[in-house]
Design a protein that fits this description.
Layout lengths: L2 H44 L1 H23 L7 H4 L10 H14 L3 H18 L3 H12 L11 E2 L4 E2 L19 H19 L2 H9 L10 H15 L37 H4 L11 H9 L8
Antiparallel strand pairs: 1-2
Length: about 300
Amino acid sequence: MPASGKFFAAARTFAIDVANGFLAIIHNSFALLGLAVAFMAITLFARPDLRDAGESQLRSWLTARQMAELGVPVELAASDRATATNPKNLPKEQAAVAFWLSKKYRVAPEPIAALVSEAYDLGKVNRLDPTLILAIMAIESSFNPFAQSAVGAQGLMQVMTTVHTDKYENFGGQNAAFDPVSNLRVGVRVLKECIERAGSIEGGLRYYVGAANLPTDGGYAAKVLAEHQRLRMAAGLRAVPLMTAKVDQPRQAVQIASTKPATPVAEASGSAAAAAPAAVPVSSSNTSARSEQVALQSQEPAL
């Protein structure tokens, strides 16, 4: 065989050997990679803590990359913390109330819808009219969850946080006063205790605003009850008169008496709203009443 033929034969043999070796290496590498993946899968299945740690690190890395690109933090779960729901998903009565409040108080319907839904749930559990709960929120804070009065009443229901500290323990502490749902739940608890203590809704409202031992509540109860009646009508319910029990009578369940519709408090001539002194401020601005509420804590158990 000529020398050139031997050279080409040797080159061909070398190329074939190199190709076969390369294929063998690739085959073995994929086999090792498959074994490594299987081992990692078994390990992660057997050790959930390692899997969770890996997922957390991966999310942190992806978030850091997004922050670097966008220049702002990315929180995909932020909407889960929002107090909001679609009012169209509520029952007809609740949706009507939510849209009415949204329009009157110029608040977005989504957060109002969430508060309306919560008020109805709390009202059912505590045997309170949910529109009364919403009326108190309206008069106290106009649905501002960060409202604070001159004497420290805070949040939607303007609860005296320093007085009712114990009631916030189940919600993580006093800062929960500015969480709308937590403040609402604490406020309803305080309201229920006030009504039980007074024996009537009107008397309970006087306790709630801290004016039980004052000559007047500045028209606070009348204003809340008037808004309560407007809310009932907005919900398609009839307005009802409230039977006011005397404070010195034994405690009794609040009664709603009457078999015929009543004129709304706000529109009735000679009603409590009309008779209430107009010169005394009401709601969270009623500083004297709120101050009296604080002073009374040293004389009688806090609600």
